[in-house]
Automatic annotation (TrEMBL):
<protein>
    <submittedName>
        <fullName>General stress protein 26</fullName>
    </submittedName>
</protein>
<dbReference type="InterPro" id="IPR052019">
    <property type="entry name" value="F420H2_bilvrd_red/Heme_oxyg"/>
</dbReference>
<dbReference type="Pfam" id="PF01243">
    <property type="entry name" value="PNPOx_N"/>
</dbReference>
<dbReference type="InterPro" id="IPR011576">
    <property type="entry name" value="Pyridox_Oxase_N"/>
</dbReference>
<keyword id="KW-0560">Oxidoreductase</keyword>
<dbReference type="InterPro" id="IPR012349">
    <property type="entry name" value="Split_barrel_FMN-bd"/>
</dbReference>
<feature type="domain" description="Pyridoxamine 5'-phosphate oxidase N-terminal">
    <location>
        <begin position="29"/>
        <end position="147"/>
    </location>
</feature>
């Protein structure tokens, strides 16, 4: 999954006249540094399901893991389209990000080992995962399947001076 530079567009309707489009590299830095993300999936009956989780940015995608029988994993079996969000709850400061894409299961064990190392480096030893049979294994929590979400479209919302809305379109 390449870290290709997408086209950045500032939406003047929702941006201060002094605002400029934010480079994708700045958004990637924020995505990589965020500690908590909110994942939105769609239930079989069409209702949304939203849950907070942790994740890592690697290989041009946001990655998260979940138990194979959890609601979000069940939802993804029927509909892989997701939205991941992160940012701050403040109104007049900070930056919020929205990533839209398709969640793709990661089963390649060398890649999973790299991702497991990234999880532990970011979140500490309590988030240590072994890799076995194409899944993460945590001795205290059991098995987790891993998904990658390469962005299809992303949005950034600058809050405060200057307010801005940037859209990144990926080919």
């Amino acid at each position: 999954m390449p870290d290709k530079e997408p086209r950045a567009e500032l939406d003047a309707r929702y941006s201060d006249e002094r605002a400029t489009a934010v480079p994708w590299s700045d958004a990637v830095t924020r995505l990589a540094e965020a500690e908590v993300y909110w994942l939105t999936t769609v239930r079989p009956d069409g209702r949304p399901h939203v849950t907070p989780l942790i994740g890592v940015w690697a290989d041009g995608a946001l990655h998260f893991c979940t138990g194979a029988h959890e609601r979000k994993a069940q939802n993804l079996r029927g509909n892989p389209h997701v939205v991941l969000t992160t940012g701050s709850n403040a109104l007049r400061e900070g930056y919020d990000l929205v990533v839209e894409g398709e969640a793709v299961r990661v089963g390649d064990e060398p890649r999973l080992r790299r991702l497991a190392g990234a999880w532990e480096a970011k979140y500490g030893a309590e988030w240590h995962f072994d890799v076995r049979d194409g899944v993460f294994v945590n001795p205290g929590a059991g098995e987790a399947v891993v998904f990658a979400v390469p962005p299809r479209t992303a949005f950034g919302f600058g809050k405060g001076e200057p307010y801005s809305q940037t859209r990144w379109r990926f080919s």
